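2 proteins. here.
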Amino acid sequence: MIGYFSSGIGRLPHLQQLLEAPCRRVRWLGRQRDLTHIMGWGRKPTAARARRFARDRGLPYISIEDGFLRSVGLGVEGAAPHSLAVDYSGIYYDATGPSDLESLIINGDFDEAELARAARGIELMRTRRLSKYNNAADHYRDPRLQGRAAVLVVDQTFADPSVACGLADGASFANMLDSAIANHPEAQILVKVHPDVLAGKKQGYLAELAQRRDCLLLDADISPWAALDLVDEVYVVTSQMGFEALMAGKIVHCFGMPFYAGWGLTRDALNCPRRGLKRPLAQVFAAAYLRYCRYVDPLTGERCEFEQTAQRLVALREGGKRG
């Protein structure tokens, strides 16, 4: 029996299928004897109560987060998730300690068939231009970019747990922007605003600084792939868009330690002693998208695989539906 405090967790559809166990909301002083685990939203501040409850009672804590292939529409606007990351040892964005995903990348026994499936998955993501949210326009044109090389710098939401847990802080974003400008003096520096900021739900790190540095803000609601079409190199702190850039064949510079850094795939400003091993892109994809994330068919409520979820999101997007 998995207990949770967050009312938001209780609103997740098909929660028990994704967790493969019965779940119920608990109170600090309520019924507790049947609990075997406690879960919460990763390392978010709102999960501090759940982590403390688990620690005080000697119960294992399970971290959950949205999966990497989430929905058509933003979670902050109510789109239900099609996938969930479930982690018993950490959470994928927390490089301060091990996680199930990191262990899969290091120790996972991936045979040729699974790596071939991962290669097909990468191609599916690339050709169908899939990402986490899948709701933004998939094209972008700006006359200021005609005939000029461009480099992409990816902003994130202010105080997102993945920043501090990714061994970074606000200064990391300024350092990233400075490096992009210094390394590409003739290029137009593009700064992509986070979708949650565009939706008016959160704030970012770079908007004001980017404008002072004469950068071009990508403040239209465009897909990651539309932005990646414009550039050959991408600068990130811990954004998932860095992994999508790897799938697109771009050079990726990391100023934090996201799950895909430290494996020889990216140009890293930081070091994680637990990593430092060479891992091919297909293996990291297989670990993250095929094994680590769990998927559910929203129509039947049954568990499914990455491929079925990808095709479902394509169909929803092309049908103009959110979900």
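next one coming up
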Amino acid sequence: MRNGLAGIGFVDCGVRRSASENGSVCNHSNKDGTQRREVSIDGNRITTVDIHAHCAVPDALAVLGYPTENTKLLMTDTSERISTMDAQGIDISALSINPYWYHVDVDAAEEIIRIQNESLAEICAAHSDRFVAFASIALQHPKLAVEQIEYGIKVLGLRGVNIGCSVEGDELSDQKFDPVWAKCDEMGLLVFMHPKGVGSELAESRLSGSGVLTNTIGNPLDTTIALSHLIFEGTLDRHPGLKICAVHGGGYFASYAHRSDAVIKTFPDRVGPLPKKKPTQYLRDGQLYFDTIVFDPESLRHLITQTRPDKIMMGTDYPYGWTSTEVDLVMNTPGLSAEDRKAILGGTAAKLLGL
């Protein structure tokens, strides 16, 4: 295995503090004098898990000649990243890398994924109490991807698989990807699905202009489209054990899934073969999971009403600055029981990742 500790980078972000009727967040002094926020529920310290934490491997980016941006914290010195986690009240970060390699051939894809997954495994081994990671895979080459899953999980000790919401214009529901979903189903792996944004035609027309709409709207729309295809084209039915974490609260799907139920009755001749369940049922059953990145306690409460508390996992989207106060969001969301907060803040993630 190569020496990859210097090859992963992160960026810093801020934090604030909160408490709820059945939980509290307090500061604890580390041996070096720095402060670590510790989260307790009903007086018991819990382990918090950030399911949505990005990183980059410069050596892998270099294979394609890409610049190494957003690498303020290199993994030769993890102190700054861990200090940020301490300030946020995050005990464990589940690291993932947004796919940028879906266009490359087999040889390049094999090299990129090898570098990335070995680097991720090294940093997780060096800080096993603070980091776990999702294995990257070359999804555009399904046979290779299956091999990378086997090696990443069984040999390197990674905890799940991360993917994009489409592959160079091909939907995840395309049956050529079924061997990958079958392998994830067989191994009981959580699949972390992150958007890359909608296609260039829409991005260059309706999503151009002010407001970074390619990201603000395009990313959650990308997730919504992917989930809809996975349901309506039978992927989730063909692989009943497949578990997918759809980030950014699942995009717009959970907020408007009842329209997807209604289309089955409204246009029955244009929906088929029918999914085994109504689309809203997939929100509540055991295959789809979501992170907390919806920004507002009432929005999180609504997401939970459409799904279940044990379907939601805390995520920060580090280091992109969208949010750094997810512990506070969960603690301040009304109507949650102590068990609900435990599940969202880390319990569900720990179960799915085998922590």
